[in-house]
UniProtKB/TrEMBL annotation:
Start and end residues of each HTH luxR-type domain: 487-552
Alphabetical keyword list: DNA-binding, Membrane, Transcription, Transcription regulation, Transmembrane, Transmembrane helix
Stored CDD domains: LuxR_C_like
MF-aspect GO terms: DNA binding
Superkingdom per UniProt: Bacteria
Gene3D superfamilies: Winged helix-like DNA-binding domain superfamily/Winged helix DNA-binding domain
GO biological process, alphabetically ordered: regulation of DNA-templated transcription
Name used for this protein in its record: LuxR family transcriptional regulator
Length: 553
């Protein structure tokens, strides 16, 4: 069963495949009245299931509750990292043991990145599952080992740094695994997934601050090990890509990546915008000398509440059809937090923890936003999912760590706070300009693409009616099949990519040739075809052709 909820252009269907086919047949024969927005009467903000019960946004949330093993797994993986290498955010971080250890971990990840990109490696399910199990064990080991010196009152900085770097590396790998499991979903489900995980992890991390360091590490160890059963539970639950979210809007990252995934300009703009803002985060976390800023109990609680509050507001807005909050909106929020941090540092030079509240909240939001963007590129990219995950880490965490380490090493040589503030302000402006200009370009392209699409539709009609004497029979058949696939796409709520796959598959292309035509892997093509069968309730290529002949115009 698939969930149903429609809001702000996103339609989530809640009907079994055989019911979808029957209702579409009724729609085609005129027995279902369309609503004002062009969808059939059963697709509305509140719809009826097979028992006549009303489907509401609450039903959608209950369906998304099926994702709790993934949410818990991602939250526990992140919390293990923060407790071990960031000191549970009792301060902005742990300095060299945080960003220094991150640079070591990123060096190792960069090697894997090169192997994946140059060798065009694609990791299979068995490899990723085996690697995940090993990484969970190593993350738990690092947490226990970091708790042991505290219990024995041993202070070996070299060992602590090595363990922190190990924990950073393997925790990153566990986070990649959970993000990978969410690929193929849409804006609403991805936002609900990442921000719910962020909220849960923040609660766990805060609770660990109330415990002695060693005890907090051991509690985090237990929760890290819970990732093992979460892996098993996740397989038995509704998968993210099975919660159909309809076609993503063109003004969110899932819409961008579907139509512009091969655009180097868009990829570069996204990387520059995140990277430049990450430099600001790195400098703010160690303001002004590079050393970590300690929280008081009040400001630590304020940071947690602010992070949870903003994350909850983002989820609520997305569920109400405001997907734009995850493009322009979230950048405005993050840049506003950076400005507030600068103002607070200047206004309260003797109480830097006030500015640290905004800084650490900004850092946490960047975490969830990066997760969201990584899932978008994993879903529609042509490379292995880990390629995009590592790339996201190298850009955002690499820029942050380098800026922080540079500040830590240079402030004693050039202790100029005015220069530092000017540098951070300039970076905020650059980040805003790069991102917003790119979004304006995308909006302009949307208008151009709509005009081109209208022209293509007129051309298709001309071809189908046989009014273009210069077109071959093959061209006419291909245009007709594309038109039929788009009709089925609207009837069964297929994604844009699924409609492309359907048109080629209905033409008789093999899965391998479909993959070649669309520049995707054969496995991805196979997954799209499986989802097409599941959504339509059809079971073979011939049934698809028969349906097109009977029910599409």
């Amino acid at each position: 069963m698939l969930p149903l909820y429609e809001r702000g252009g996103s339609v989530l269907a809640y009907q079994a495949p055989h019911e979808a086919a029957a209702r579409t047949a009724e729609r085609a024969s005129g027995r279902l009245e369309p609503t004002a927005d062009g969808h059939a009467g059963t697709i509305a903000k509140q719809t009826e299931d097979e028992h006549g019960a009303r489907q509401t946004p609450g039903d959608f949330l209950r369906t998304c509750a099926q994702l709790w093993p993934l949410v818990a797994g991602l939250a526990f993986g992140r919390a293990g990292l923060i407790v071990a290498s960031y000191g549970s955010y009792t301060s902005t971080d742990e300095g060299i043991f945080t960003d220094g250890a991150m640079l070591v971990a990123l060096s190792v990840l960069a090697v894997f990145f090169v192997v994946i990109s140059v060798g065009k490696v694609s990791l299979g399910k068995r490899v990723t599952n085996a690697a995940m199990r090993i990484c969970i064990a190593l993350e738990a080991f690092a947490l226990v080992a970091l708790a042991t010196p505290e219990l024995a009152e041993i202070n070996n900085q070299a060992v602590r740094f090595a363990l922190s770097a190990l924990c950073t590396l393997v925790s990153s790998a566990t986070i990649y695994y959970w993000l990978r499991r969410a690929r193929g979903t849409g804006t609403i489900v991805a936002a609900l997934f990442v921000f719910s995980a962020l909220i849960l992890s923040e609660v766990e991390i805060y609770l660990c601050t109330l415990l002695p360091v060693a005890v907090g590490n051991l509690v985090a160890t237990v929760l890290v090990l819970v990732q093992y059963p979460c892996m098993l539970w996740a397989r038995k639950r509704t998968q993210p890509h099975d919660i159909a979210a309809g076609a993503s809007q063109s003004n969110d990252y899932f819409g961008f990546t579907k139509t512009m995934i091969q655009s180097k300009q868009f990829l570069a703009a996204t990387a520059i915008g995140i990277g430049v803002l990450s430099v600001v985060i790195g400098l703010l976390r160690g303001y002004p000398s590079g050393e970590a800023i300690a929280f008081t109990p009040v400001t630590r609680a304020a940071y947690g509440l602010l992070t949870v509050g903003i994350s909850g507001a983002i989820v609520a807005l997305v569920l109400h059809g405001r997907q734009r909050v995850l493009t322009v909106g979230i950048f405005i929020v993050m840049e506003l937090l950076a400005c507030l941090a600068l103002v607070a540092y200047a206004a309260f030079p003797d109480m830097l923890d006030i500015g640290a509240v905004f800084t650490t909240t900004l850092n946490a939001l960047m975490v969830a936003f990066t997760w969201y963007v990584v899932i978008a590129f994993m879903s529609y990219g042509w490379r292995d999912p880990y390629y995009y995950a590592i790339a996201g880490w190298l850009v955002w965490l690499g820029c942050r760590a380098i800026a922080r380490m540079a500040l830590l090493g240079s402030f004693d040589l050039v202790p100029n706070e005015t220069l530092m503030n000017a540098l951070m302000g300039s970076c905020i402006v650059v980040s805003a300009q790069v991102i917003f200009v790119q979004f304006l370009n995308i909006a302009r392209r949307d208008v151009q693409e709509q005009e081109q699409q209208n022209a293509r539709q007129e051309s298709v009609l001309v071809k189908i009616m046989g009014l273009d004497e210069h077109e071959s029979l093959a061209d006419v058949r291909q245009a007709s099949m594309k038109h039929n696939a788009e009709e089925m796409g609207r009837q069964f709520l297929l994604s844009d990519r699924e409609m492309e796959v359907l048109s080629l598959y209905a033409l008789g292309y093999t899965q391998k040739r479909v993959a070649e035509e669309l520049y995707i892997t054969p496995g991805t093509a196979h997954a799209h075809i499986k989802r097409i069968y599941a959504k339509t309730g059809l079971h073979s290529r011939q049934e698809i052709l028969d349906y097109m002949q009977q029910y599409t115009s």
